[in-house]
Backbone:
């Protein structure tokens, strides 16, 4: 946005509040399609080659549910903190279109696979979150290729059913988003999450991750929603942001001009940078949903849900939130910010990954880490010793001070105690000593290493460094 | 002796005794079909080439493994034209499917083929199995082998007619509201509808998915049981097919009814049931009583709302199941400049009146604003009907009643849909509840057959065979030959 557009926009936002909800359709990375054995990877095949009687909707064939798709959808639902009801079913959504061979899409209507979740993200550095109404499963449609722009004016159209029946997950967000920027961040985080948990490849351009938006405007302070407009055809994150910004201003212009908004579906036309009306409410479909009689209802027991939960890696959002919590705790307790960040992002993150246990749930805990770092800070132990203890405490827990005391791990900072080791190191490395004296600074490292090894890593490195320099300078 | 109107059991014995061959049985069936078909019109498609191949293969199997071969091996049969056979035109008696050759075979059919069945053709039926007289076939109705001016019943009318005429000893039909049992009753043969979920629906062109079930029409209860044993059982391609093991129906056949409690639903003998039919069925009840069955009058009060419930649920499902006939991919297409016009013209030209009526009814029942009043309400009543049956089955082992309120009526006689819908008033409650049921011949009125219906609890298909066979062993109605079975060249 230009400076002036931004200023205009913020003036508008002082008077009106946008209410935005996003609906995402994500293709699942299963091996086969939702209800048949065809490959879910439809892109490589020649048109209509990746099909069978079931996904072609031929008379007499029946759907069979893909278990992996159920598992992926449940995994997603859990990652989005959704409830998973024990009973769910599929329904038929009826409408005629050439890319829908059965004349209905198998989807989920009143008893979806999951509901009431939440996605956490950040907008301009501030934590934000958006409710997830539901995550449900359905099947993708085929694709049409028109001789002309749209079906209605095309002289001919070709139908390709390779994509038809690919498992599609619909993630419906609550109308909790209050700006185009928030919608953008929500979408970026959701895509990141789906890719991270391995259920979707996150490709907006190819359409494996698609987004529709519902947007309305209401005067600041109002509690009722304004007239809702649905926006489609946004094929990139940028398009989502631009389309929402455009629509937001269009709606305000209508309202300011004393006009009324129509409940309608509008398409984003990238080339014109505009949304264009596609269908108004009077022509809205009546999908005549009813329970799919070819598929018995599904019972997802707790055991199944737990098994899926166990396959879930620690989530990027949750991990980031926990990292922030731990960091804050350490800094508040007096640990230097740089030290805290270095340890959290380095050794602690590595251990969390290795053991699949986050810091707060480990034997160490945030408080244990603070105490361990305090021992380093006060010079009681050196960093290598702390790193060694960290791994042990992370897994088994325990008191850092007691361990240091019992095992005699406190670092040696007495010059008399170190003198013998220093002399031995110089004697054992005559070449390095000569190099250092000749001005080669890094030759000192070899002798420091020798001293550390000789003292079981307990020597205070800075002291060793200083003493070596003193001896070699003589 | 002619092979026409011989049972599977008789033919299987003759094949093993070397008195005939599958090829000879096929030739006999084809010859008889040729004689009666001009009057009967029971077939839409002959599958001579397929039958010849199957007969040859069956002969080999019988020669090599006469003892382990299925009793169905080498026996001619026919399939209702809603059942898909790979490469064979399958139309469901609808113009909209003209020229459709499915690239797959229905599971139930494949199981018969694997057992050595010899398929002579695809039989006539009401369009998409919607009807009770066969008059809704887009290709003209089949006749009744007892009087070709009369209807064979429906929707599996062609299957009932060809078995009744003695062309083949058995045929497969489908039953959504009585479509096996009612034509069996009108054609004087035995027709069995299995428990919903017992036989795979894969490859059956759907009318109403939650009600449709494939079953046999044959000359005896024993033959029905033989066919059922082959086609029943779980199919991973039909998620509504039940995974539990199938009870072998054979032991039940000889069990008799001594001590069995048979319920006589008051409502199934009420108004609308022809007095002659009622008389025949009451005689049949005495036959069962004489064999030790204890009869008890029971009540199924929801019967009066079953018909309207059925005519919401079945059309609702059909309106959705038939959406795929849009001219885009297969079957009939009426070329038009716009997509909408192509849809409209294709479906207007492709579907007959009854199909259109049900598609409209179902679309209406599912529409926004009407769903709760119609579809949802109907589902509730359906649950109630099933519960009522379950409650009655706590005090009786099976139910006995007429199958059809009347004997076969004259073609064109019932020209309003409602009087036609009444044909299924005592058969369709079993579909709503998913129960197994059978119709066996139990007498004649003016040389037209009457049927006795036996119903049992879900998955007690064997119980149905037990009662029906006990009746059949005590009577010889089922052995009476129709005029067409005796038609000479
Ligand atoms: Zn497929």
Residues:
């Amino acid at each position: 946005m230009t400076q002036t557009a931004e200023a205009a926009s913020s003036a508008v936002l002082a008077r009106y509040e946008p209410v935005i909800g996003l609906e995402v359709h994500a293709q699942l990375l299963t091996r086969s399609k939702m209800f048949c054995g065809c490959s879910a990877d439809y892109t490589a095949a020649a048109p209509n080659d990746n099909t069978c009687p079931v996904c072609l909707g031929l008379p007499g064939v029946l759907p069979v549910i893909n278990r992996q798709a159920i598992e992926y959808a449940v995994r997603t639902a859990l990652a989005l903190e959704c409830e998973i009801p024990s009973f769910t079913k599929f329904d038929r959504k009826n409408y005629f279109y050439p890319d829908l061979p059965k004349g209905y899409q198998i989807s989920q209507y009143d008893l979806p696979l999951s509901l009431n979740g939440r996605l956490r993200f950040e907008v301009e550095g501030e934590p934000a979150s958006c409710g997830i109404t539901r995550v449900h499963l359905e099947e993708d449609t085929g694709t049409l290729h028109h001789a002309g722009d749209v079906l209605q004016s095309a002289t001919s159209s070709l139908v390709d059913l390779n994509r038809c029946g690919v498992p599609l997950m619909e993630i419906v967000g609550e109308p909790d988003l209050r700006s185009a920027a928030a919608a953008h961040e929500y979408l970026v985080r959701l895509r990141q999450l789906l890719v991270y948990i391995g259920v979707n490849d996150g490709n907006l351009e190819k359409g494996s991750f698609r987004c529709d938006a519902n947007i309305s405007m209401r005067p600041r302070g109002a509690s009722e929603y304004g007239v809702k407009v649905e926006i489609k055809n946004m094929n990139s994150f940028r398009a989502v942001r631009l389309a929402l910004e455009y629509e937001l201003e269009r709606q305000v212009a209508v309202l300011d001009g004393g006009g009324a908004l129509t409940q309608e579906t509008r398409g984003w036309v990238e080339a014109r940078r505009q949304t264009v009306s596609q269908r108004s409410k009077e022509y809205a479909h009546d999908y005549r949903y009813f329970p799919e009689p070819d598929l018995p209802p599904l019972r997802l027991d707790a055991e199944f849900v737990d098994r899926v939960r166990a396959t879930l890696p620690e989530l990027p959002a949750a991990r980031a939130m926990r990292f922030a919590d731990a960091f804050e705790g350490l800094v508040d307790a007096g640990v230097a910010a740089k030290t805290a960040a270095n340890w959290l992002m380095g050794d602690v993150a590595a251990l969390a990954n290795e053991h699949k246990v986050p810091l707060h749930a480990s034997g160490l805990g945030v408080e244990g880490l603070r105490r361990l770092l305090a021992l380093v800070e006060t010079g009681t132990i050196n960093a290598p010793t702390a790193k060694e203890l960290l791994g042990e405490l992370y897994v088994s827990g325990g008191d850092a001070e007691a361990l240091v005391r019992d095992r005699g791990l406190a670092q040696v900072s007495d010059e008399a105690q170190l003198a013998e080791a220093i002399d031995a190191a110089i004697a054992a490395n005559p070449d390095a000593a000569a190099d250092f004296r000749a001005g080669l600074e890094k030759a000192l490292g070899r002798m420091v290493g020798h001293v550390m090894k000789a003292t079981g890593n307990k020597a205070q490195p800075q002291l060793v460094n200083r003493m070596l320099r003193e001896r070699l300078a003589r | 002796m002619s092979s026409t109107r011989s049972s599977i059991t008789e033919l299987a014995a003759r094949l093993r005794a070397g008195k005939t061959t599958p090829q000879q049985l096929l030739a006999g069936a084809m010859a008889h079909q040729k004689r009666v078909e001009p009057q009967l019109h029971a077939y839409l498609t002959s599958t001579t080439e397929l039958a010849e191949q199957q007969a040859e293969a069956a002969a080999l199997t019988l020669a090599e493994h006469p003892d382990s071969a299925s009793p169905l091996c080498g026996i001619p049969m026919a399939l209702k034209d809603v059942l898909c056979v790979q490469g064979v035109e399958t139309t469901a008696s609808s113009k909209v499917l003209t020229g459709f050759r499915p690239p797959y075979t229905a599971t139930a059919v494949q199981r018969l083929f694997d057992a050595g069945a010899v398929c002579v053709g695809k039989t006539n039926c009401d369009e998409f199995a919607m009807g009770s007289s066969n008059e809704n076939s887009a290709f003209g109705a089949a006749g009744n082998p007892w009087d070709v001016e009369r209807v064979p019943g429906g929707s599996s009318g062609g299957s009932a007619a060809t078995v009744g005429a003695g062309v083949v000893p058995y045929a497969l039909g489908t039953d959504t509201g009585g479509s096996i049992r009612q034509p069996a009753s009108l054609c004087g043969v035995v027709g069995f509808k299995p428990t919903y979920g017992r036989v795979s629906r894969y490859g059956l062109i759907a009318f109403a998915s939650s009600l449709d079930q494939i079953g046999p029409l044959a000359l005896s209860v024993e033959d029905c049981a033989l066919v059922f044993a082959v086609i029943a059982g779980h199919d991973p391609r039909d998620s509504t097919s039940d995974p539990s093991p199938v009870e072998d129906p054979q032991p039940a056949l000889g069990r008799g009814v001594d001590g069995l409690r048979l319920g006589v639903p008051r409502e199934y003998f009420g108004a609308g049931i022809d007095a002659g039919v009622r008389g025949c069925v009451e005689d049949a009840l005495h036959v069962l009583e004489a064999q030790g069955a204890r009869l008890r009058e029971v009540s199924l009060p929801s019967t009066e709302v079953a018909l309207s419930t059925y005519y919401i649920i079945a059309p609702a499902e059909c309106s959705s199941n038939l959406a795929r006939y849009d001219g885009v991919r297969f079957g009939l297409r009426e070329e038009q400049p716009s997509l909408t016009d192509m849809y409209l013209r294709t479906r207007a030209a492709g579907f007959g009146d009854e199909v259109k009526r049900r598609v409209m009814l179902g679309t209406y029942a599912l529409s926004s604003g009407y769903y709760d009043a119609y579809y949802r309400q109907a589902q509730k009543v359906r649950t109630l009907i099933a519960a009522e049956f379950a409650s009655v089955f706590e005090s009786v082992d099976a139910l006995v009643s007429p199958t059809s309120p009347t004997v076969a009526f004259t073609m064109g006689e019932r020209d309003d849909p409602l009087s036609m819908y009444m044909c299924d008033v005592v058969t369709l409650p079993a579909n709503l509840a998913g129960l197994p049921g059978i119709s066996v011949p139990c007498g004649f009125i003016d040389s037209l057959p009457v049927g006795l219906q036996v119903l049992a609890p879900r998955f007690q298909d064997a119980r149905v065979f037990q009662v029906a066979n006990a009746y059949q062993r005590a009577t010889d109605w089922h052995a009476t030959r129709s005029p067409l079975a005796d038609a000479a060249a």
In short: The pocket of zinc ion is lined by residues A 33, 36, 38, 51-52, 54-55, 165 (CB under 6 Å). Chain A touches chain B at residues 53, 56-65, 92, 94, 96, 98, 101-104, 151-152, 157, 159, 286, 288-290, 293-296 (CB under 8 Å).
